[in-house]
């Protein structure tokens, strides 16, 4: 780093500054290229697609993709299945995000303390995150089917219809499944954040005779607020992209569409039925939805 | 949880390869061009065995027109893999697992070559398949698929469960809806099974092919879901079939929840709705018999129509050596190869007079004979544009009303009919 000239700061030489930026640019360019090719261009293409009558065609096929204005959006917004899917995902987020934040923060705090077998527990919570959803879904089907372990334990208290074919319970159950599966990742984020909470605060609180709950609420929760904002936003984004669970766990978004998600409909409309223009319109609306929810979440979680 | 990224990639990156430019349309030259080709086949062990032998036999006789064969790459379904390959311009010349329901979509994509382009092709198809061939013609009157093999859907029943329930296992009472319901009640009461029959109650568009459609084909004497742009399932036959299944679900004789595995093989269901592939799968696990699907009044096996569950072979437009591809297709659907297909897989070639052509096989394997007779009476899915969207619309309405009982089946099917007709009118 150059030392400032005597008598005040002097603009850095252009060449030196450019050289430093060039190096930085070199470091970030692989990621920028990745973002441009894998996210930015496809997203731009999706927006274009959503305003045209578009379908996938063979390279040699002579086809036209006429501009159709808002036709695809009108089709999507007037489709009761799409409206239901957005409603379902809202229900999912209402259950999933608070559960994810609450459980991961509590468990991270516990795992941050000096527990016996702490490493084992850290690995145990992380394991579902790195296990294939398909395998996990198989286990949950076994647990929550009408003759499954959970209903056997509940006996007379088992819901009727059972979990996976119950319109009211299917989506909350998926929200719990996803929260459990993702927990390891979010615990890891909180564990990292907890390392930055000054130990002195806890020591002072101990001196003042604060209880564990008081310390958690008055020191831990405010201390990891930036991490909470991140967890909420990431959980919202990943949750809004829900696909595998309704596809496999509830037999394609059942019962009667009660667990269908917008991404599941994108798959149906775009890939199975050959209407990628309509699927793209659903995708753009989903992006706007996630953006709006994330902004609200950010406002709420960053508020003092 | 799966992120949207893979889907976005599929939706959005595929067009990039489409935009990447092809080699220009050289269909005219390609139609007669000979040389090496690539083919895909299904990934079940029996079909792999048949395909390997067929290819080896072709290759040894045609060293300059070698066939390179592989299983269809993994995907959620063959159809989406083939659709992606069409868009990317790297589909093989032939796919021996083309779903008739997806043909109209592949055709719209410009992915399929009309087989009528090849001299004698239409005659080969018609001579091989007889009247059944008509169902595989596209709306422009051309064949974009060779109807290859079928798996006529019938009711397989577990004889042990029938006996346990005090029922006649050799002559089961399953002909009429009334009989079927009464038998089902006894099976669930005394047979130790959770369901009399357990078709997948999930929402995928194709599930109706294994509950509603076979019974509708039988009840209606062979009507398709849509004919001449009109939905056929709102008439008395469709209503009767819907009411029958509603009763099955209402009385818990069929389960609303998907079984995680094979309910019939695991002894959780007394019956299953399946084609001749079932013989190899269940033969060592279950002592079972086969009967036609029920109808309201009861029919003999000979007059009972059913769903074909057929697969076709498509010849794809990205193929450079189409002359060879057609020759291979003709060879693979010859009488000799059809025999090998039958012997190796137990699936029925879409060929007229199977029991006459391969009498010795059916004599040695009587269980297959029932399916062969049914194969003469199959009904295909309608070859209409937007076919898959139409089936999804139907499935959604069926699921809501028949399986979950949230709406009157007649009302739901009427709404579905309007949607299906709207889709059928689209190009």
TrEMBL record, chain A:
Keywords: Cell membrane, Membrane, Transmembrane, Transmembrane helix, Transport
Membrane association type: Multi-pass membrane protein
Membrane-spanning segments: 21-43, 89-111, 123-143, 169-192, 224-243, 278-296
UniProt-listed InterPro entries: ABC_transporter_permease (IPR051393), MetI-like (IPR000515), MetI-like_sf (IPR035906)
All residue ranges annotated as the ABC transmembrane type-1 domain in the record: 86-297
Cell location: Cell membrane
A Pfam family annotated for this UniProt entry: BPD_transp_1
Family membership: Belongs to the binding-protein-dependent transport system permease family.
Protein name from the UniProt record: Sugar ABC transporter permease
From TrEMBL, chain B:
Signal peptide residue numbers: 1-20
GO CC list: ATP-binding cassette (ABC) transporter complex, substrate-binding subunit-containing
Keywords: Signal, Transport
Gene Ontology terms: biological process: maltodextrin transmembrane transport; maltose transport
InterPro entries: SBP
A molecular function (GO) term: maltose binding
Gene3D superfamilies per the UniProt record, alphabetical: Periplasmic binding protein-like II (3.40.190.10)
Database matches in Pfam families: SBP_bac_8 (PF13416)
SUPFAM superfamilies the UniProt entry points to: Periplasmic binding protein-like II
Similarity comment text for this entry: Belongs to the bacterial solute-binding protein 1 family.
Protein name: Extracellular solute-binding protein
Protein's organism: Streptomyces bathyalis
């Amino acid at each position: 780093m150059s030392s400032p000239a005597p008598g005040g700061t002097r603009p850095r030489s252009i060449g030196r500054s450019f050289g430093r930026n060039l190096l930085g640019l070199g470091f970030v360019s692989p990621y920028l290229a990745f973002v441009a090719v894998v996210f930015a261009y496809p997203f731009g293409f999706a927006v274009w697609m959503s305003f045209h009558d578009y379908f996938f065609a063979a390279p040699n096929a002579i086809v036209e993709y006429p501009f159709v204005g808002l036709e695809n959006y009108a089709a999507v917004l007037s489709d009761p299945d799409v409206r239901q899917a957005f409603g379902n995902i809202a229900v999912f987020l209402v259950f999933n995000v608070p559960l994810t934040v609450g459980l991961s923060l509590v468990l991270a705090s516990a795992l941050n303390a000096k527990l016996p077998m702490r490493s084992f527990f850290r690995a145990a919570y992380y394991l579902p995150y790195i296990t294939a959803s398909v395998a996990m879904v198989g286990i949950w089907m076994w647990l929550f089917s009408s003759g499954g372990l959970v209903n056997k334990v509940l006996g007379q208290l088992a819901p009727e219809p059972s979990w996976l074919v119950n319109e009211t319970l299917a989506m909350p159950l998926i929200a719990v499944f996803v929260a459990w599966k993702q927990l390891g990742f979010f615990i890891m984020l909180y564990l990292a954040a907890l390392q930055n909470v000054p130990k002195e605060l806890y020591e002072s609180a101990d001196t003042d005779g604060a209880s564990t709950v008081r310390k958690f609420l008055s020191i831990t929760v405010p201390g990891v607020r930036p991490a909470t904002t991140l967890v909420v936003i990431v959980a919202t984004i990943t949750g809004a992209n829900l696909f595998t669970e309704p596809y496999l766990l509830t037999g394609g978004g059942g019962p009667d569409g009660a667990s269908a998600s917008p991404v599941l409909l994108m798959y149906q409309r775009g890939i199975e039925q050959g209407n990628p223009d309509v699927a793209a319109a659903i995708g753009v609306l989903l992006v706007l939805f996630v953006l709006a929810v994330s902004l609200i979440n950010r406002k709420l979680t960053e508020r003092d | 949880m799966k992120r949207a990224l893979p889907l976005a990639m599929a939706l959005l990156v595929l067009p990039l390869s489409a935009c990447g430019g092809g080699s220009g349309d050289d269909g005219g030259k390609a139609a007669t061009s000979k040389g090496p080709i690539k083919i895909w086949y299904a990934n079940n062990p029996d079909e792999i065995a048949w395909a390997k032998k067929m290819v080896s036999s072709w290759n040894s006789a045609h060293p300059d027109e070698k066939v390179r064969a592989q299983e269809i790459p993994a995907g959620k379904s063959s159809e989406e893999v083939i659709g992606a390959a069409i868009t990317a311009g790297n589909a093989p010349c032939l796919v021996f697992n083309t779903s008739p329901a997806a043909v109209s979509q592949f055709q719209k994509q410009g992915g399929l070559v009309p087989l009528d382009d090849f001299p004698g092709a239409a005659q080969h198809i018609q001579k091989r398949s007889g009247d059944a061939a008509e169902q595989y013609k596209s709306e422009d009157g051309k064949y974009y698929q060779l109807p290859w093999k079928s798996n006529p859907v019938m009711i397989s029943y577990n004889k042990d469960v029938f006996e346990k329930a005090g029922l006649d296992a050799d002559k089961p009472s399953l002909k009429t809806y009334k009989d079927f319901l009464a038998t089902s009640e006894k099976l669930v009461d005394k047979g130790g099974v959770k369901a009399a029959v357990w078709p997948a109650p999930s929402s995928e568009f194709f599930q109706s092919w294994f509950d509603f459609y076979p019974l509708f084909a039988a009840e209606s004497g062979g009507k398709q879901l849509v004919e001449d742009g009109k939905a056929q399932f709102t008439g008395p036959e469709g209503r009767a079939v819907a009411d029958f299944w509603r009763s099955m679900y209402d009385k818990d004789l069929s389960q609303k929840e998907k079984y995680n595995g094979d309910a019939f093989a695991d002894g959780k269901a007394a019956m299953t709705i399946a084609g001749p592939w079932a013989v190899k799968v269940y033969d060592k696990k279950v002592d079972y018999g086969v009967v036609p699907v029920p109808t309201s009044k009861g029919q003999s096996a000979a007059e009972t129509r059913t769903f074909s569950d057929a697969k076709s072979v498509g010849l794809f437009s990205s193929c450079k050596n189409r002359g060879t591809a057609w020759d291979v297709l003709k060879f693979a659907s010859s009488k000799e190869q059809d025999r090998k297909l039958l012997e190796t897989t137990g699936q029925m070639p879409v060929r007229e007079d199977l029991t006459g052509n391969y009498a010795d096989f059916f004599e040695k394997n009587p269980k297959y004979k029932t399916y062969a007779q049914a194969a003469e009476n199959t009904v295909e899915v309608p070859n209409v544009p937007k076919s898959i969207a139409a089936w999804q619309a139907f499935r959604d309405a069926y699921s809501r009303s028949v399986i979950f009982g949230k709406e009157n089946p007649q009302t739901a099917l009427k709404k579905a009919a309007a949607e299906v007709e709207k889709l059928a009118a689209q190009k």
